[in-house]
Design a protein that fits this description.
Elements (H helix, E strand, L loop, with lengths): L4 E7 L3 H12 L4 E5 L24 H14 L3 E4 L2 E5 L5 E5 L2 E10 L3 E3 L15 E2 L2 H4 L7 E5 L3 H10 L5 E5 L9 H9 L3 E4 L2 E8 L3 E8 L5 E4 L8 E4 L3 E3 L29 E3 L11 H26 L20 H7 L10 E7 L6 H12 L5 E7 L4 H6 L7 E6 L4 E7 L6 H13 L7 H7 L6 E7 L6 H14 L3 E7 L4 H6 L7 E4 L3 E4 L4 H9 L1
Helix pairs in contact: 1-2, 1-6, 4-5, 10-12
Length: about 550
Amino acid sequence: MKNELFDLIIIGAGSAGMTAGIYAGRARLKTLILDRSSAGGQIKITSDVENYPGVLHASGAELSETMRKQAENFGVAFRQTVVEKVDFTGDIKKIYTVDGMYEALAVLVATGAVPRKLGFVGEEAFQGRGIGYCATCDGEFFSGLDVFVVGAGFAAAEESMFLTRYARKVTVIAREPEFTCSKMIAERVLAHPKIEVKFHTELLEVTGETMLAAAKFINNQTGESWVYTPPAGETFGVFVFVGYMPQTTEYRDQLRVDQYGYIPTDESMRTNVDGVYAAGDVRPKELRQLVTAVADGAIAATNAERYIARKRELLGLHHEEQPPATAAPAQAVFDEATRGQLEGILSRFEKPVQLVTVLDDSADWSAELKAFATEFVSLSDKLSVRFLQKGEDPALEQQLNITLYPAMVVLRGDGSPTGVQFHGIPGGHEINSFILALYNTAGPGQQVSEESLAKLRAVDKPVNIKVGVSLSCTFCPDVVTLTQLMAIQNPLVQAEMIDVARYPAFKNQYAIMSVPAIVVNDAQVTFGKRNLDQLVALAQG
């Protein structure tokens, strides 16, 4: 991998990155797309897409999956990894990730942006316990409760309508005198029977003990303040949609950024470094929408193609055209994204992997888990599964430290535990973490740099890390996969994925209202995405 030279490496698998991949692949450029998460970016957590030309109606997840398949059909490769640093100073651009270094003649940075926090009193303290930033990930936690949406833009308007699927009532809090999104979307929000809109209003503070108990608001015209408290025995939710922060930290010592952290470009998407481009929400721009992201990606790839042709000629490099990839074969149970993950991975397993699945008839989905495990292991002769009923082999359950049932535990071929457990059926986005757990156990596994290995093995005392997830959460698999790597590489670490929808007692015990929820040694609880350094710090206490 380290000696493989790509024509174009795209960092970020959102709409801009995948569009660039489609154009580059169609031009027969040897193209690789890197992303820390599964493909899709912000669009994959959008419930409905209705304003993209030529698409009458589709979910963001459906549209992003179509984009990925288009790119793959043109020969574009996708790899899930985390970029740690880059070197854009030479003719050959170098990208250092947790699983090694990649090289390319040109690079496109399309890393997008993450939700911006507002800064009101209590926001940090109650993140994950009532304060959220992803309606798709966390909306279901507020079924039958009151919800506040803070913001006046497109995201706030769209997500307020999405949240009406779950919430008893949605109140939009907008400091502006009117919505700043399109008039059509604004009118739909204002007309919705379950939505109330309060303009000229700001959120000052939220309070409570383990969960939200009150919120204080102020009218920024009259100065009048008021306090909301939920009915006795209830809590409520606050979702913040007030813009985004560009993900450019790893590039700021190589590329020029503006005062807000965005990467300026010219009309050709060129940055201040020759051969490096930027596209999508990582750029300063007036309109941040799907249609502008794909336009950026197309422009960037087209100009990169010309640059790469010149650079190959100057360096005397022979160009070998990339043939289009063939479509993934169909499977009976797994969707296209899963088949794309399975293709080639299961066949590369070097060693056997065992699954011990402990069923619990008190769980109405236990039979479904058994069917999933049975069909999955039939896909490879390197996989096997042993089924037990809860209490059938107490000594083994104690040895594997199983405390939640049902449970699916990953063992090496010799029967030794990896420390990895799954509680729930690993579907949705978590199918990726499940496959990676098996792949990293069987070998060859993800290539991990020596620096990252040292971090993974740095924990020097026994630690159990439970990650509460929702299968619709796009951020959760990153955290789950990193904790699994810690467990597989370090016998002192145990890593458990827990689908909070299937384990309400776990959810209630830790007052989980957002995912990912990271529980260390059944005591310390934190919420949100964490990188490897942060997870190691949590494990070390």
